[in-house]
Amino acid sequence: MSNSRTSIIAATVFVFALLIGLVFYLKGNFDKFIATATAVHLGQPGVRSGQGFVNPTVLVQDDRLGNVMDATSDRQNPALIWVAGKKCMMSVQTDGKIISVVTLPSAPYHFRWVDVNNKTTLLNTGSWVSPASLFNANGQEVWSYSSGSGINDTTACYNLLGDSKTEFVVGLNGGGLHLLDARGHLVWSVSEKNVWHVEAQDLNEDGNIKIVYSNADGQLVVRNPDSNLLVTYNPPVSVTDFTLTDWINDNGPTAIVFPNGSKYTFWSISKSAPVADWESGFRLKTGKTRAQWVVWNPESGKSLALLTTFALSHQALLTIYSEAGEMQYQEVLPEACEGLGMVDGPTPGSHVLLLGMENKVIQYQKPIS
Questions:
Q1: Residue percentage of the chain with pLDDT more than 70
Q2: C-alpha of 369 from chain center
Q3: pLDDT tens digits for 215-260?
Q4: Residues contacting 51, CB < 8 A, separation 6+
Q5: Strand pairing category for 339-344 and 55-61
Q6: Sheet containing strand 119-124, strands side by side
Q7: What secondary structure letter does DSSP report for 216?
Q8: Angstrom distance (rounded) from CA 314 to CA 307
Q9: Does the structure show a pLDDT above 80 at 186?
């Protein structure tokens, strides 16, 4: 009787998990369901450490935005800030005055701002049920790309093919890795199991772009622009999501950052090994992370802001570290927000950190001493 009851409970949990997965699939977010299969509860929202280190204020708040996925300064006019919401793209001044609003298609899109021909352009990174696509500042679709497999991620990179244009790398669910040219046309494809997350940049500051992605085996794979395999890393944990960030010492100019238990592990490209673990105080394994360096004051050191999103628990964790990995500020956020950016600050050489939330953008600045 006990075994029968246990089997019924196990079957019920399994069916419930499948139903949750189906809901995420229909929303075009099945990849996030996999990456956040276990809900992480961070407790009550609020500042956990470093109260007063930064001063958060609302830059802009508007119900037309929806969930804000990204924010960046205009490539040609740094005094203008572009905000990508789920429902519209919006341009605002640094004082929060709204300049323009363009309604976006109602679809399960995931938006990121990219630089195309020195113009701020909106990239939809795609999903299992929507194509990857590019929109100009007027909200017009420039190109759209779909494949027989669902899309897990798309990234943009300037001069990947040495043609002084922006190319796009698409990671597919079981369909491999695809490279698109500036017009969204397929250049090459390679077979690969699920490509969960993909990024591309000059990893060693030698002028050569590399493509980095995570696969179904939890490995980190690096390829050249011609698709040839360069190296496959086997990190200490199975990696689904990661982010690339500049590094600050002799361990190399670029590090791959990924959640590892309660720590953020920094994997050096040049040394092919982990070089740092920064403690967060929370279990991070199932979170989706973005990184942003910030200079609060040009006369002092930089800070690294890490935002980890937990979709199932509808929360996020913002942690700011010094260059040495010392925690300067930490806040539990009441939403699964994923928009993190940086714009120029009020004094030359300084920055303001931007955080996208539901219908608003929060700006974090260092109080003037």
A1: 88
A2: 32
A3: 999 999 999 999 999 999 999 999 999 999 988 765 568 899 999 9
A4: none
A5: unpaired
A6: 111-116, 119-124, 132-135, 141-145
A7: T
A8: 13
A9: yes
- Which of 234, 228, 273 has its CA nearest to residue 255? 273
Continuous segment of H or E residues that includes residue 177: strand 177-180
Rounded CA separation 328/307 (Å): 14
- pLDDT at res. 30: 47
Could you give the C-alpha distances from 172 to 81, 125, 238, in angstroms and in order? 31, 11, 18
Amino acid at residue number 42: L
Q: What is the average pLDDT across 326-336?
A: 97
At residue 18, the 3 state secondary structure works out as helix
Strand order across the beta sheet in which 220-223 lies: 197-202, 209-214, 220-223, 229-233
Residue 106 in this model has a pLDDT that exceeds 90: no
The number of beta carbons lying within 10 Å of the beta carbon of residue 45 is 13
pLDDT at site 205? 80
Sheet with 88-93, side-by-side order of all strands: 68-73, 80-85, 88-93, 98-103
Q: What is the pLDDT of residues 266-322, one digit of tens each?
A: 998 888 889 999 999 998 877 889 999 999 988 887 999 999 999 888 999 999 999
Q: Residue 83 pLDDT more than 70?
A: yes
Tokens standing for 180? 């698109």
At 188, list the tokens: 């090459």
Q: Is the pLDDT of residue 17 over 80?
A: no
Q: What domains are there in the chain, each with its CATH number?
A: 2-365 (2.130.10.10)
The span from the CA of 98 to the CA of 217, in Å, is 45
Question: Hey, what are 118's tokens?
Answer: 């020195």
Token pair 């990857």 is at which residue? Answer: 132
Q: Residue 136 gets which letter from DSSP?
A: -
Distance CA 100, CA 96 (A): 12
Per-residue pLDDT at 9 exceeds 60: no
CA distances from 350 to 108, 144, 189, 328 (A): 35, 37, 41, 17
What local confidence, expressed as pLDDT, does residue 270 receive? Answer: 80
SS3 letters across 20-85 = HHHHHHHCCCHHHHHHCCCCCCCCCCEEEECCCCCEEEEEEECCCCCEEEEEEECCCCCCEEEEEE
